[in-house]
Design goal:
The protein is mainly beta. The chain has a nine-stranded antiparallel sheet with strand order 12-13-14-15-28-24-23-18-21, with no helix packed on it. Strands 1-2-3-4-5-6 form a six-stranded antiparallel sheet.
């Protein structure tokens, strides 16, 4: 993956926007990095603003604010978490997820899924091929020889609609998308809903609900890139990770699981106790070097339990991830290379962020010993992930 900076004021770039059907938001609308209002809580927990258009479809910016002043900004293009603003141990507020200031950035072909909901199937499917009920399906191979994150136009590259009839309370929004039969090669029409909720206990809860009218594989996840020191504030190599996992799924050279579960003990994959992310990263190998591996979460899948904890010694911020999913993909930002111009004009070097993508295992549709990802008619896919944010006060 080769990522590059986009010069938003150049004439050639504006021509690209026009060709892609992207219309910028009104010039008076704030950019994602604009947090000019002080974080003092809000009597309106959800606010909405236009965020431009893509292919004639209006894109919304949805802002959730809780009673402590924490803010989550979501855009309906890709149902993305575009900003997550939290306080550190000294009460200093920072946005801790990577992304762009404008819709144009998110719509570029080289966007690395910043903050997006990915699907129908997050992660990889070997050779873009699977057989279901005796029929073989061929999907796009958009990651070398394999299918990644739903294909060339996955759920990250469509406009979701807010469900204003959902009768939610507090700082919460529900976004829905209908994927027609045959989209990206998948069978069956699929109805997906994702609810984001920001609680006054500084938790972001993500609830997924999916139905389909024909058997189809489903594996939704959120692809946010976190840096607990602040987005664009150096690397995450000194931040300490703990995973509730005693085993991971080894992969081949194209990052497809071999089908086995391997113990993490005695390997660079062992995060059963808090360990700086960069402590053993060179031993992981890869091209580029770094983590991009699925870990099996201890406990019973389907029940909400902790999967990961990350702590920044610099800021005192702590992120705890809870999920009902059987696995979590830990990615250390290996493909970032400093060429993306992100929010506030900042660039993101290699290892500028980590991802913790709660999910079923990669290539599960082709791996009979992995937890099943096939959704059948009459069954509702449900999944919950919680990001619990805090900061020590030392």
């Amino acid at each position: 993956m080769h990522l590059f900076s986009l010069l938003t004021r150049s004439v050639p770039f504006l021509c690209v926007l026009a060709a892609a059907g992207i219309v910028p938001a009104n010039a008076a609308s704030p950019m994602i990095s604009d947090f000019s209002s002080p974080p003092s809580g809000s009597s309106a927990p959800v606010s909405r603003q236009p965020f431009g258009e893509i292919n004639g479809q209006p894109v919304e910016l949805l802002v959730l604010t809780n009673g402590t002043g924490m803010t989550v900004k979501i855009i309906s293009y890709g149902a993305r978490v575009a900003a997550l603003r939290t306080a550190d141990r000294n009460g200093h507020w920072d946005d801790i997820v990577l992304g762009y200031d404008t819709l144009a950035g998110y719509a570029t072909p080289t966007d690395p899924y910043f903050g997006a909901i990915v699907g129908r199937v997050g992660n990889r499917i070997a050779k873009g091929r699977f057989t279901l009920d005796g029929k073989t399906y061929q999907l796009a191979t958009n990651d070398g020889p394999n299918h990644l994150h739903g294909g060339k136009v996955g759920f990250d590259r469509v406009v979701w609609q807010e469900d204003r009839q959902a009768h939610l309370h507090g700082a919460a929004v529900r976004l829905v998308y209908t994927s027609p039969a045959g989209e990206e090669g998948y069978p069956g029409t699929l109805h997906a809903a994702v609810t984001y909720r920001l609680t006054d206990s500084n938790e972001v809860q993500i609830d997924y609900q999916v139905t389909a009218d024909a058997p189809t594989p489903v594996n939704l996840t959120n692809h946010s890139y976190f840096n607990l020191d602040g987005a664009g504030e150096g690397t995450i190599l000194g931040q300490e990770l703990e995973l509730h996992s005693k085993a991971y799924t080894p992969v081949d050279a194209t990052l497809i699981p071999t089908g086995e579960l391997k113990a993490v003990a005695g390997t660079p994959m062992d995060f059963t106790s808090a360990t700086p992310i960069g402590q053993r990263i060179q031993a992981v190998g890869g091209n580029p070097v770094g983590y991009d591996h699925n870990f099996a979460v201890e406990g019973t899948a389907g029940t909400l339990r902790w999967a990961a904890r990350v702590y920044s010694p610099k800021t005192g911020r702590r992120l705890e991830v809870l999920t009902t999913e059987p696995g979590v993909q830990f990615y250390s930002g290996n493909f970032l290379d400093g060429t993306i111009q992100g929010k506030g004009g900042r660039t993101y070097p290699q290892y500028a962020a980590f991802c913790l993508e709660t999910q079923h295992f990669p290539d599960a549709v082709n791996q009979p010993n992995f937890p099943n990802t096939v959704l059948r008619p009459g069954v509702t896919y449900r999944s919950t992930t919680v990001w619990r944010l805090s900061a020590d006060r030392r």
